[in-house]
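User: Could you go from structure to sequence for me? I need the amino acid at each position, not a summary. Structure tokens:
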């Protein structure tokens, strides 16, 4: 059983990508600016850039769900529990954000929270959000325990917070990662990790494919045209517009996101430029050494690469005038960092909310709208985002060289550990290994359980602390830290699991550490 990987951390400037944009711009004519209509005035429209993600507080060890409008942060949660924002949609003056908090998928409309429907003992997870005719659609997965005592992750979507089932073709672990409306049709893109299938739905009906692309990673309606991104039948990166496929490279690869500005179409993805081979595991691109690409109107605009980092899988993109924004996973050829935001090839350091030291980005979108109604606003520090950011605020503190080295060691550990036989990676990056599979019942999140085991704290490859729990203890699962809670919910009584966790899922004050827990589930206490 394999699962897709999402998230981790680190930042770095991508200067050569910026130079690629400059070089390209010198040899191409910029698109004509859009004009205002209906009021007799002319000139370019105001385009706002929104980014979804989270800010991390090293003292509390919690992530706060945050989005940014033109570089200014808006906190969506109070920082008391770990949360993140993963996707956004703008409708008129309304700002919609999808996110997750400790097993609860949700969305916010102008800062007001709406939880996605689930049973008390189940959990769910949001990936993508869309608004059509005033209705809010969120895609993700629903985790529940079946009558045979096994947990399942099933692709689902929610309309205005209410659960809607999707046919998953017998897969026990499936995910709905992208949702879009094209005219009167609702399309959902997803994957299954049971057999590494790509999954497609149109109006809740499961399809073999939705167009002539072999793999479709996303579909959307932009400025009245229908776009899909993915790969051709021969495995080349391509996009699909209104029934016509445009191939972007003669070598293997895949496109993952698209943006439109005026008559210009921007597409980002990856291809096998280094010749090391190209492999898709489910929907996840797993050749970490290849190079991200950006194309404009079918022509290569730039490689997403500099001397230190490669953006090897773009996740979302937005365009404002001649500025191109991309969020994507980064790698140095060996270790994966979390998604980073770039503007014209330079990594953007977003402002943090009060009390936080750094932030992570998951999604970027542009919108031609004015001021939006926001219910919660937090003052943040200024970063090099754009001219709209005030200049009289303080600059975000850079991590020390020692911390950077520790974080790189964490990334390397989890990248190598996931390749070991028997190690399973959860969507949030927590990994586990089944040492013994029990045959008893599964606990629920509100159950009290009797457990024993040991814990190990590592910094790089060095073990700095080890604690043995020789006598069984009783504890309620929802009182445990995130990684222990998630591991126990997967276990049957009698099981022994080894759980590997990055520091963000452990209540310690040591960023850049790795925690390993070996837990035996002895019984559910009644």
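Assistant: Here is the amino acid at each position, in order:
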């Amino acid at each position: 059983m394999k699962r897709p990987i999402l998230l981790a951390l680190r930042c770095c400037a991508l200067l050569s990508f910026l130079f690629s944009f400059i070089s390209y711009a010198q040899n191409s004519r910029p698109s004509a600016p859009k004009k205002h209509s209906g009021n007799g005035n002319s000139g370019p429209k105001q385009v706002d850039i929104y980014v979804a993600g989270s800010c991390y507080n090293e003292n509390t060890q919690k992530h706060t769900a945050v989005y940014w409008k033109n570089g200014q942060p808006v906190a969506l949660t109070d920082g008391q529990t770990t949360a993140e924002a993963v996707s956004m949609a703008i409708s008129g003056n309304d700002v919609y954000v999808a996110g997750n908090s400790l097993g609860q998928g949700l969305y916010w409309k102008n800062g007001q929270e709406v939880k996605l429907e689930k049973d008390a003992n189940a959990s769910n997870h949001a990936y993508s959000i869309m608004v059509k005719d005033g209705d809010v659609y969120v895609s993700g997965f629903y985790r529940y325990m079946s009558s045979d005592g096994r947990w399942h992750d099933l692709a689902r979507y929610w309309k205005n917070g209410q659960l809607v089932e999707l046919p998953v073709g017998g897969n026990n672990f499936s995910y709905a990662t992208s949702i879009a409306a094209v005219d009167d049709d609702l399309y959902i893109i997803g994957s299954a990790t049971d057999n590494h299938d790509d999954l497609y739905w149109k109006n809740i009906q499961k399809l073999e494919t939705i167009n002539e692309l072999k793999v479709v990673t996303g579909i959307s309606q932009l400025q009245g045209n229908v776009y899909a991104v993915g790969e051709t039948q021969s495995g080349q990166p391509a996009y699909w517009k209104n029934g016509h496929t445009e191939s972007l490279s003669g070598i293997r690869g895949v496109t993952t996101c698209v943006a439109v500005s005026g008559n210009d179409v921007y597409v980002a993805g990856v291809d096998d430029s280094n010749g090391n081979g190209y492999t898709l595991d489910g929907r996840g691109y797993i050749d970490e050494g290849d190079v991200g690409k950006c194309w404009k109107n079918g022509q290569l605009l730039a490689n997403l690469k500099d001397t230190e980092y490669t953006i090897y899988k773009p996740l979302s993109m937005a365009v404002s005038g001649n500025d191109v924004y991309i969020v994507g996973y980064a790698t140095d050829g060996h270790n994966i960092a979390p998604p980073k935001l770039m503007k014209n090839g330079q990594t953007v350091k977003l402002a943090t909310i009060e009390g936080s030291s750094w932030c992570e980005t998951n999604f970027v979108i542009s919108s031609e709208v004015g001021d939006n109604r926001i219910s919660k606003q937090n003052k943040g520090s200024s970063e090099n985002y754009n001219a709209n950011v005030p200049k009289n605020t303080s600059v975000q503190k850079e991590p020390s060289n020692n911390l950077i080295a520790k974080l790189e060691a964490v990334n390397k550990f989890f990248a190598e550990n996931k390749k070991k036989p028997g190690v399973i990676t959860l969507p949030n990056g927590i990994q586990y290994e089944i040492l013994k599979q029990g045959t008893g019942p599964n606990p629920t999140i509100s159950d009290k359980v009797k457990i024993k085991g040991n814990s190990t704290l590592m910094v790089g490859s060095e073990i700095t602390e080890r604690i043995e729990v020789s006598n069984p203890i009783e504890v309620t699962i929802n009182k445990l830290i995130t990684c222990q809670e998630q591991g126990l919910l997967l276990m049957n009584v009698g099981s022994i699991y080894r759980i590997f966790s990055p520091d963000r899922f452990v209540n310690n004050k040591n960023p850049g550490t790795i925690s390993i827990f070996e837990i035996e589930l002895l019984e559910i206490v009644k």
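One structural detail worth keeping in mind: Residues 1-43, 280-286, 369-399 have pLDDT under 50 and may be disordered.
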